[in-house]
Design goal:
Elements (H helix, E strand, L loop, with lengths): L2 E8 L8 E6 L2 E5 L15 E4 L2 H5 L4 E5 L5 H4 L2 H7 L4 E3 L1 H13 L9 E3 L5 E3 L4 E6 L8 E7 L2 E6 L16 H10 L1 E7 L13 H13 L4 E6 L3 H13 L3 E5 L1 H12 L27 E7 L3 H11 L12 E4 L8 H14 L2 E4 L12 H11 L3 E5 L3 H14 L13 E6 L2 E2 L4 E2 L4 E5 L1 E5 L2 H13 L1 E9 L4 E2 L4 E5 L8 H19 L6 H20 L4 E8 L10
Parallel strand pairs: 3-5, 5-6, 6-7, 11-12, 12-18, 13-15, 13-16, 14-15, 16-17, 24-27
Antiparallel strand pairs: 1-2, 1-19, 2-3, 4-22, 8-9, 9-10, 10-11, 19-20, 19-21, 22-23, 24-25, 24-26
Helix pairs in contact: 4-8, 6-7, 9-10, 11-12, 14-15
C-alpha cells in the first residue's frame, strides 16, 4: 500500500509564510519555509513564521527541505527551521546563495548546514520517490517548480510564476520539462493562487519599459526610483534603461546591495562598473544633486516609503529631495503598508516633486493569472488540484477556476493550515485529519516569540503612553523620604498638568500610609493598589489609560525593591 499525505503549516490563507509538507509512507519532505511580514497593528513584530512544533516532533522522518525561489515568503523562516533540525536543503544556485547570506545575517555559519545546489537535470533519489526541479518564470533568477515522482503519479508544486518568455534564459519557463512531467502522469498539482483573481493573461514587460523610458527622457533633474529589493528583474530593467540614456546608477538600500552583489557575482545581474556611483554623505560641499544619475531607493515592504520620507524631510544622509526631482514609485503598497504609502504620497505632494506611480495591477504579472493557471492545467493534466500560496479569497478563486475548467468539486481541495488530505494507491481517502499548526511572532531573532500580553502592552504604549512613579521610602522606620518623581512618556506634558501631578502625589501618600499602618508591608498588594488607584484617577480625569509603573526604593535594605 502506498500512502501520500499533504498538509501546509503556512501559506493556506496567508499572504506569505509558505511551508508545505508531502508525506510519502511516513517520510516527510518540506516545500519552502517562508515568513510573513506583519501588518502595522502588530507593534514591534519583525516577522510571522509557521509554528513547526509538529515537524520538530517528527524530525527523524524529515528527509529534506526543497526551496522554490529566493523570496522571504518562501525561504525567510529557514534559519528558524534549521536551528530546530539540521536537514538537507535543496535549491538552485541563486536561491542557495541567498540562503547562505540569510544565515550569515542571523549569525549562523552556512558551513554548518547541508546546503545543496540543484541543477534542473539533477534527480534527488529516495527509497519510495524521487524529486526534480524545473525552471519557471518569476522576478528572481532560477525560480523553480518542484516535482515529486511517486508510484501513484507526480506531485507538482509551483509558486509565484507566469508565462512571460520575453526574459533572459535564467528566468524562462521550461515547457519541455513540464511536458515530460505530464507524460509521467500528475496525481496532484499544488499551484499558487495570488494572481487567481486576475482574469487576464499575465503581461510582459513592455508597459513598464515604456513608462520608464518615457519618464527618464522627460526628467529635468534627478530621477529617484523607489522599488522592492527582491524584484531583481525590475531592477535590471531600470539599470538597462538608464544605461541606454547614458545615465549612471546609485543604489540605496542595504539588502538590495547585497542581493545585487550576489546576483552580479553569479552573472544574473549586469551592471557596468563604470556606471555605478558611490554616493558621499551630504555636507556643506556636497549635495549629491547629480542630474545624470538614477537613484534606486530599494528595500522590503515599508522601507522604500520610509526612506523617501526621510529624503523629503531632509533627514537622509545621502539624498535630500528638491522640487525639481522626479520620483517614480515602482513599489505599489503591499498588505499592511497602505498607511505609510499614503503618508509618503502626501509628503511628496507637499514638496511638489514630480510623482509617477505605476499601476498596481501591472505588478500582478509576477503571479499566475486565471489564464496562466488554466494553461498550466492544460499542460499538466493533474488528477487533483490543491490551491496553495494565497489568502482564502485567492485560494477560493483558484478553486472556482478549476471547477470552471471542468474539475469536479471532489477533485479540488480548499484547505486550511494544518488540514491533512491523504491518498492511498492514488485515490483520495475519505477522511481528513488535522496536525498542530499556528503562527509564531518574531521580535528580533528567531529564538524570540511574542505573546498576546506583550502586544496588548505595546498597543497601550502606542496609544496612551506610560507614567513612571518613583519614590524612596524607609520601610523599617515606615517613613516617606521624598515626594514621588513622576515621569511621563507619550501621555502628557508634565508642566502643563500640575493639578494631575499633585493628585498622583496625594494618592501615593494615602496608599503608602495604608501600608505603613500594617505590621509588615505587603509589597504585592502595595504595588497593585497604587497602580489601580492612579490608573482609575487618570481615566476619570483624562479618559486615557496609560501604563502606570510604580518604582518604590526601600533605602532601609542593602538592595532596592522595585515595584513594577
Amino acid at each position: 500500500m502506498n500512502q501520500i499525505k499533504f498538509y501546509g503549516l503556512g501559506g493556506l490563507g496567508d499572504n506569505g509564510k509558505n511551508l508545505y509538507c508531502i508525506e510519502i509512507n511516513k517520510k516527510i519532505i518540506i516545500l519552502d519555509c517562508g515568513l510573513q511580514h506583519p501588518s502595522g497593528d502588530l507593534l514591534g513584530v519583525d516577522a510571522l513564521v509557521p509554528d513547526i512544533t509538529y515537524l520538530v516532533g517528527r524530525k527523524e522522518d524529515v528527509q529534506g527541505i526543497f526551496l522554490s525561489h529566493a523570496h522571504d515568503k518562501n525561504i525567510g523562516a529557514l534559519p528558524m527551521l534549521l536551528l530546530q533540525m539540521n536537514k538537507p536543503v535543496y535549491g538552485t544556485d541563486y536561491t542557495i546563495a541567498v540562503v547562505r547570506d540569510n544565515l550569515r545575517e542571523n549569525k549562523m555559519n552556512p558551513e554548518d548546514y547541508q546546503l545543496n545546489v540543484v541543477e534542473y537535470k539533477k534527480i534527488i533519489k529516495f527509497d519510495d520517490f524521487y524529486i526534480e526541479f524545473f525552471q519557471t518564470t518569476h522576478s528572481v533568477p532560477l525560480s523553480a517548480g518542484i516535482v515529486i515522482y511517486t508510484k501513484d503519479g507526480a506531485i507538482v508544486y509551483t509558486t509565484d510564476f507566469n508565462f512571460n518568455q520575453d526574459v533572459p534564459e535564467y528566468y524562462r519557463t521550461d515547457f519541455q520539462k513540464i511536458a515530460k512531467i505530464a507524460d509521467y502522469g500528475v496525481l496532484a498539482y499544488l499551484n499558487e493562487s495570488q494572481g487567481a483573481l486576475n482574469n487576464s493573461k499575465s503581461s510582459g514587460d513592455d508597459y513598464l519599459k515604456k513608462l520608464i523610458r518615457h519618464n527618464f527622457l522627460k526628467a529635468k533633474n534627478r530621477i529617484i526610483v523607489a522599488m522592492y529589493s527582491t524584484e531583481l528583474s525590475n531592477i535590471q530593467m531600470i539599470i538597462n534603461e538608464a544605461i541606454k540614456l547614458n545615465k549612471r546608477i546609485a543604489i540605496i538600500g542595504r539588502k538590495a546591495q547585497r542581493l545585487l552583489f550576489i546576483a552580479e557575482m553569479m552573472g544574473y545581474i549586469k551592471v557596468p562598473e563604470d556606471r555605478l556611483v558611490n554616493l558621499k554623505y551630504l555636507d556643506a560641499d556636497n549635495n549629491n544633486e547629480l542630474d545624470d544619475v538614477v537613484f534606486l531607493v530599494t528595500g522590503e515592504r515599508h522601507e522604500p516609503f520610509f526612506m523617501l520620507q526621510r529624503m523629503a524631510k531632509g533627514f537622509d544622509r545621502l539624498v535630500k529631495l528638491i522640487e525639481s526631482d522626479m520620483v517614480m514609485m515602482l513599489c505599489p503598497p503591499l498588505i499592511g503598508t497602505e498607511k505609510i504609502a499614503a503618508k509618503t504620497y502626501d509628503i511628496l505632494a507637499k514638496l511638489d516633486v514630480e510623482l509617477i506611480k505605476a499601476s498596481k495591477d501591472y505588478f500582478a504579472r509576477f503571479h499566475a493569472s486565471a489564464e496562466d493557471i488554466k494553461f498550466m492545467y492544460t499542460l499538466l493534466k493533474p488528477k487533483y488540484i490543491i490551491p496553495v500560496n494565497g489568502e482564502y479569497r485567492q485560494l477560493l478563486a483558484q478553486a472556482t477556476i478549476a471547477r470552471e475548467y471542468g474539475y469536479n468539486d471532489s477533485d479540488v481541495f480548499l484547505l486550511d493550515n494544518g488540514e491533512v488530505i491523504s491518498f492511498t494507491n492514488g485515490t483520495k481517502d475519505r477522511f481528513h485529519d488535522i496536525v498542530e499548526n499556528g503562527t509564531i511572532m518574531v521580535d528580533g531573532t528567531f529564538e524570540t516569540d511574542l505573546n498576546d500580553q506583550v502586544l496588548k502592552e505595546r498597543e497601550l504604549l502606542a496609544e496612551d503612553g506610560f507614567l513612571l512613579v518613583i519614590a524612596n521610602i524607609n520601610a523599617k522606620e515606615k517613613t516617606m523620604l521624598n515626594s514621588p518623581e513622576i515621569v511621563s512618556r507619550g501621555f502628557m506634558y508634565m508642566k502643563e498638568n500640575e493639578d494631575i501631578v499633585k493628585e498622583i502625589e496625594i494618592i501615593y501618600q494615602l496608599e503608602t500610609k495604608k501600608q505603613f499602618s500594617q505590621k509588615t508591608i505587603d509589597w504585592q498588594k502595595y504595588k497593585d493598589n497604587l497602580r489601580y488607584q492612579i490608573q482609575r484617577y487618570l481615566y476619570n480625569s483624562t479618559k486615557r489609560k496609560p501604563i502606570v509603573i510604580p518604582v518604590i526604593i526601600d533605602t532601609s535594605k542593602e538592595h532596592t525593591c522595585d515595584i513594577i
